[in-house]
Amino acid sequence: MQVFTPADVTRHATNKYLSVLVAAKYARVLNEFPRHGSKPGEKKLTTRALEDLSGGDIEYRVVPRRRAPGE
Asked: Whole-model pTM above 0.85?
């Protein structure tokens, strides 16, 4: 089992909390793609997402939250 340290994932994100959020959302995107059964030795989606994030393969941008009128 591969272990990801906060230093591994924060190389391509501003902090460890943001990096976990980005990896989780990317894992959800990966889950939407069709898979034809699970193959032996296939990595979990969260592991793939963390590998891609720590490798710099995921591009993301932070969009500021819009406030509703009257807030």
From this structure: no
